[in-house]
Amino acid sequence: MSYVINDNLLGGLSHQEFLDEYWQQKPLLIRQAFNGSPVDISPEELAGISCDTDAPSRIIIEHGESPWESLFGPFDDETFASLPESHWTLLVNDLERFIPELRDIIQQFKFIPDWRIDDLMLSYAAKQGSVGPHTDEYDVFLIQTSGKRHWQLDTHIDYPKEILSNCSLSILKKFNSNADWILAPGDMLYLPPNLPHYGIAQDDNCMTLSVGFRAPSQQELINGWIESITEKHQFKQRYSDKKRQLQKHSAEITQHDIEILSNMIVEGIDSQKDNLSLWLGKYLTETKGETRHNSFLSADTTSNNETFIRESWLRLAYTEKSNKLHFFADGEHFPVEDEAKEAIFYLCEHDTYTKSKITNYCKIDSFRKIFESLLEKGGINP
Q1: What are the extents of the domains in the chain?
Q2: What percent of the chain lies above the pLDDT cut of 70?
C-alpha cells in the first residue's frame, strides 16, 4: 500500500470536533484527506476477488433485465464479459479480510470504537455506473481511490421517502439534490445515516472505498439476546393458579391471569439482565462469513518469527464490570485476572505483536490460555 494520510484527514478538525459537529448529524467533504489513491487495487484484481473468494459481492446494472438489476457473486469471467459498456457497478464487501494491508486505513478511524466499525467495501463503476439515489442506515466514509465520481446529496429533513416498486434495491423514487461535488482520488466524503445520496461514475476508472459502520437495530439486538437466553433452558417456572377463584365465563382470560403471565415474562427477562453486558460483548465480536484456520495449537514461542499478526477478521473487545475485566474474541467470553489486564489491553490495541512481549505476557497462565485459543482459531498467526 503506497499512500500518505494527510494531517487534515478530517478537514483540520480534531476527532472530538468532528464527533461534536458532524458525526450522525451532517455531511463533510474533505479534499485530499489522502495524498492520491489510498489503495493499490486494480479493477481486474477486484473482479478476481469477486470470482475467487467468498467475499460478499454484487453487480448492479442500471438498465439490466429489470431496472437496477442485482447480480450476486461469486462471479466468473463470462459474467463480466456479458456486461454493458456503461451504467454498471461492482461492489465487494469485507475487503479487509482478503487484503490485510487495508487495516492501515481502518486504523485511521479508530477514534470510533472498534465494535462500531463494520467493514471496507470497494466498488468499481463503468462510466455512468451507480447504485441509484438511496439512503443508508449507517455512517459511511466514501474515499475516492481512482477516477472521478459525482456525488449529489439531498440534505432536506423532509425529503421524499417513497421508493421504486418492483426493484431489488431501495431506490428513491424522487431525488432532489441541493448539494453536489465531484470527488477525485484522495478526496473523502462523510455521510451520516439516512441522508439521500447519489453517486455517478464520471469515467471508466471510477473506484470508491467505503468505510462502513455497524448500527445494530433494536430488533436484531432483542432477537439475538432472547435467543441466547432461551437456548440455555434456564426458564423452568410454570404457570400456577392454586386456590383459583371460580369465574363466570370459561372463555375469558381474566386480567388477573394476564398479570401473572406477564410477570412471568418480565421477571424471567429481568433475571438475566446481569448477563446482558457479557452477551453484548460476545455478539459484537462475532466473526462474519467464513474464517481461515491454521494449524498452530499452542503459543509456540520457539519459532524464528519476530512478530505475531492478528487476522483482519478477528474482532477483539473488552468491558469492565464490577471492577472485573471481561475479554471477548470471535464471539467468546474470557474472564480476565487482574495480572493479565495489561496483556489484554496490548492485544486489543494492536494488530501486530512483538514476540518478546507475547513471550513475557504468556508467563501469566490465564493470558497464555487465551492466546493459545486465538492461535488455534487462526485469528493470530506467527
Answers
A1: 15-213, 283-381
A2: 93
pLDDT computed for residue 38 by the predictor: 85
In angstroms, the CA 205 to CA 123 distance is 11
Amino acid at 161: K
* Alpha carbons 298 and 346: distance in angstroms, whole number: 19
The string of pLDDT tens digits covering residues 214-223 is 999 999 999 9
What are phi and psi for residue 165, nearest 5 degrees? -90, 160
CATH topology of domain 15-213: Jelly Rolls (2.60.120)
C-alpha cell at 319: 468491558
Retrieve residue 135's grid coordinates.
439512503
Helix (H) or strand (E) run with residue 348 in it: helix 341-349
Alpha carbon distances (Å) from 177 to 15, 128, 133, 339: 29, 17, 10, 57
**Topology, domain 283-381:** Malonyl-Coenzyme A Acyl Carrier Protein; domain 2 (3.40.366)
Q: Can you tell me the distance from the alpha carbon of 196 to that of 81, in angstroms, rounded to the nearest whole number?
A: 32
Q: 295 vs 210, 288, 330, 372, 381, CA distance in Å? A: 33, 21, 18, 11, 10
Average pLDDT on 272-290 reads 88
- Pairwise CA distance, residues 54 & 79, whole Å: 16
CA–CA gap between residue 218 and residue 161 (Å, rounded) = 21
pTM of the model: 0.88
Neighbouring CB atoms inside 10 A of 48's CB total: 14
d(CA 306, CA 181): 46
Let me know: does 380 contact 314? Beta carbons within 8 Å. yes
- Nearest Cα to 9, choosing from 28, 24, 30? 30
CA distance 304 to 325: 33
pLDDT, averaged across the chain = 90
Judge whether residue 341 has pLDDT over 70.
Answer: yes
Beta-bridged to residue 210, according to DSSP, are 121, 142
CA nearest to 375, candidates 258, 295, 307, 280: 295
Distance between CA atoms of residues 296 and 22, nearest Å: 45
The sign one gets for the Cα dihedral 126, 185, 96, 276 is negative
Whether the per-residue pLDDT at 300 is higher than 50: the answer is no
Cβ contact 13:37 at 8 Å: no
